[in-house]
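User: hey, got a sec? need Dolichyl-diphosphooligosaccharide--protein glycosyltransferase 48 kDa subunit folded
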Amino acid sequence: MLIKYYLCSILTLSLAAFANASKETLVLLNNLVIKETHSILFNTLKERGYHLTFKSADDPTLVLSKYGKYFYENLIIFAPTVQEFGGSLSIETITQFIDDGGNVLFTGGVSTGSALRELAAECGFEVTEENSSLIDHLNFDASDSGKVIKTY
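Assistant: Yep! Here you go:
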């Protein structure tokens, strides 16, 4: 439960960065089930006036810009396991999007794919090896015995 609280706090703070941005937002997903499991977040964005376009992260028609004009001002990537983006979307196009003032929010997980590892590295973050856990020594669940539970 504590992890969900922190995730919601991080998402809320991250979305605050979108406050002054235009409302056109591309949301990339691993699968369309995420659209349902994260519906509260997406409905909150819609209520705030954001126009969300949902696509699969490996969709062969993905494109951020054409003739130097961006179609979106915000990019949300909820596809932690993506190995390679589809269409003309690449790490280079996303970093250029950021450099040109675009807003990007992306999430990782235990099995973060190589595409997001590389994007994180370009943004100055290091994502550790697969199946690693993050330990916060200041904010932790006191009921956790500290035993590692393997997930397969």
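Quick note: The chain has five helices and six strands. Let me know if you need anything else on Dolichyl-diphosphooligosaccharide--protein glycosyltransferase 48 kDa subunit.
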